Amino acid sequence: MVKSCLIIYDNIDTSKFPKLIAFFEKNPVTDIKRKKLKILTKTEIDRFLSSADDKEFLMIKVGLILGIAGACRTDELVNLTVDDIEDVGSSLIVKIPNTKTKIPRIFVVTDVGNMLGLFRKYLSLRPPHVKHKRLFLYYKAGKCSSQPVGKNTMGKFLV
Q1: Which InterPro entries does UniProt cross-reference here (predicted)?
Q2: What is the CATH number of the domain that holds 154?
């Protein structure tokens, strides 16, 4: 059996090749293996939040809390600013203005298992001289720098 390969170029109109399209519809490529992501359970998340060292993992903990509570995408977390989060004492009100669907969202994070304590601790480490309002800053050895965290860095932590 001969395996075929379809190369698609941007400037080729594939509607001019009906036999080729029919061939690929009859003989689909089935040997593609997708990577399966590991899904953390609630107990694994709780164990990570309670036992992981804050000096190394505080930013990841805050990202995990906000990401799970609001079902946030990576770019929504990266673009989150300090002004988008309102601390009302017993909970946080988080506003996500820029979403993929162009519909702003609001969600609430309550204090379960000292989640608000982790968020407040991370926010208190923010240097006073930072010129931008992005929430997530580069965090290492218990200190934040003024450099904001990018989409790829946040994606590595949360995947």
Answers
A1: DNA_brk_join_enz, Integrase-like_cat_sf, Integrase_catalytic
A2: 1.10.443.10
Name the E strands within 17-154: 85-87, 91-96, 105-110, 137-140, 143-148
Show the tokens assigned to 114: 């000292």
pLDDT at 87: 92
Helix axes 54-70, 42-51, angle to 10 degrees: 150
Q: Which two tokens stand for residue 122?
A: 């991370």
* Domain membership flag for residue 13: no
Q: Is residue 94 part of a domain?
A: yes
Question: Taking the mean position of all CA atoms in its chain, how far away is CA 23?
Answer: 39
Structure-token match 């001019």, residue found:
16
CA nearest to 65, candidates 110, 101, 98: 110
pTM above 0.90, yes or no: no
> For the chain, what is the domain count?
1
Tokens 């990570």, residue located: 48
Q: How many CB atoms lie within 10 A of CB 107?
A: 14
Rounded-to-integer distance, Cα 59 and Cα 151, Å: 14
Domain that holds residue 79: 42-158
